[in-house]
Amino acid sequence: MTVKVGTRRSALALRQTEVVIGALKRAHPHVAFEVHSVSVMGDRDKTTPLPALGKGLWTSELEAQLVSRELDVIVHSLKDMPTSLPPGCALACVTGREDRRDVVVFSRKHEEEEAAGRCKYGALADLPDGAVVGTSSVRRAAQLKRRYPGLVFRDVRGNIDTRLRKCDEEGYDAIILAAAGLLRLDWGKRISQYLDSSSEGGGLLHAVGQGALGLEVREDDDRMKELLKAVEDTPTMLACFAERAVMRTLEGGCSVPIGVETAWVEEETAGDKMTKLRLRAVVVSLDGKEAVEGEATKEITSLAHAENMGQELAQKLAGMGAQQILDDINKGRASGVAFKVGDA
């Protein structure tokens, strides 16, 4: 049996696929795996701001090959997968999660000003007003604008190596990246600050599915679904299905400022300790001046329960004003506005 595995043609995507295939080979030594890398629209177009490229910019070409049976399974960064998949496709498996947090990387121009290559800055709060921070994510820019209104946010595109080079050479003081990608490519030493909700000076909720890998198959391919169970991480899959339900219900995508955070926590009920899923979510206006936040904690035992939890929290946020924020953003998008990180 030979399984054709599709992935993006980038160093990070290929590294992630290599990890997944390694785990599958250990579980199924009799199966051969072929990697088919594809250059997708999001990789080819290096200049258009990501929100202007729409949904599916990282996935649609791969999914077309999946439906046409040129591929058997696709390895995605789950945060790149639209929450509504094309007809005939299914998210069959979510693997173990790498660090889901966003992080700060400072330009090396600041290291040169101190002895022994040490950076003069340790956190975003140390940057002066007017400092330039790069990110391709309006979610990151909008949330950070709430805490650091004096900073200037500018688009930065490219793979991780390219963005690190741009940070060092093209006028940025810092850039914001996902910890997962840096760690998977052995760039962890460039991380200066973590920005999760519990870190001092952080307060940033991450993207839906960030740090996790999603394996997409044809909806009717039961054999492939069974094969992939060997690499499924159930707690991660449940958490990510709840996160994706928040975004799907709010009709958001990677081009709108929706942040989430999930954690499995122990709670005592009637003397019994139970493990429950805590889900936090936030919707922020592009300028960071308006925000709606919410939280829920529930016992989750199935994907359906997880999706219901995310849907209920999203509906609560919508009633609190999140829907108005998103409607305003969508009006701007329809008129050609609100396409750039700089609009935050």
Describe the protein in words.
With 344 residues, the chain is of the alpha/beta class. Helix content is 33%, strand content 24%. It contains 10 helices and 13 strands. Strands 2-1-3-10-4 form a 5-stranded mixed beta sheet, with helices on both faces. Strands 7-6-8-5-9 form a 5-stranded mixed beta sheet, with helices on both faces. Helix 5 links the parallel strand 6 (132-134) and strand 7 (152-154). Helix 9 packs parallel to helix 10 (303-334). The longest helix is centred in the last third of the chain and has 32 residues, at 303-334. It is globular, with a radius of gyration of 20 Å. The model has no long low-confidence stretch (mean pLDDT 89). It is an enzyme of class 2 (transferase). Keywords: Heme biosynthesis, Porphyrin biosynthesis, Transferase. Pathway: Porphyrin-containing compound metabolism; protoporphyrin-IX biosynthesis; coproporphyrinogen-III from 5-aminolevulinate: step 2/4.
